[in-house]
Amino acid sequence: MQVDAVKVRRLYLEVATQIEQQIQSGQIGPGERLPSERDLASRFEVSRPTIREAMIALEIAGLVEIKTGSGIYVLAQTETLAPHSLDDVPGPFEVLEARLLIEPQAASLAAARISKAQLNSIEQAVQIMGDANSSEHQKEQADELFHVTIAQATDNSALASTIKWLWELRNQSALSSRFHQRVRELGVQPYVEEHRKIFNALKLRDPERARTAMHHHISNAIEQDMSVLDLHDNEDD
To answer: How many CB atoms lie within 10 A of CB 28?
Structure first.
């Protein structure tokens, strides 16, 4: 007896695949603008972040062009990459949501356990992020070093491994890489002052202050990413 393995796919891939099928079948033609983000979320019965992840997947596949503030337009089809061929990994908003649940508690734990050497590493990372002469790549590396070092400072290998894995997803997934590239193209940079507040709380060895500062930082990142990637949402569509 031969069977196919049962596999639960990511919601954004399900959405992207259905839209891809309509494009390939000619139901949606080149140059047409897709329905608004709100309309798509309602039709597919998913969240708006899921729709944004699906649109990034379609963009990577070469099926659509995203024009921030205008909408998503279908491209003339030449040689494209099927959305379902992308890595079946959590989307960028899923990663951010997981980080919001985990990293504030990690910061709280780290505040009581962090070493002087780790504090120095975190302080240097903040300085690099705030230096106007630092390249984009250097700032990105410093941002990751900041968060991963805090995770290591918990002295909890399970927490440290989990947070490191979330950052690997952010950096290695084609979807997340393109997502964060778009965010940077739209002018969003690591929030230096927010990182500095987290560092100061760790330096004071204040668990609650560290937890609150980290929670505010990641919450703000989610809100800012949602804002800068806001898609055209005309109620008359």
So the answer is: 19
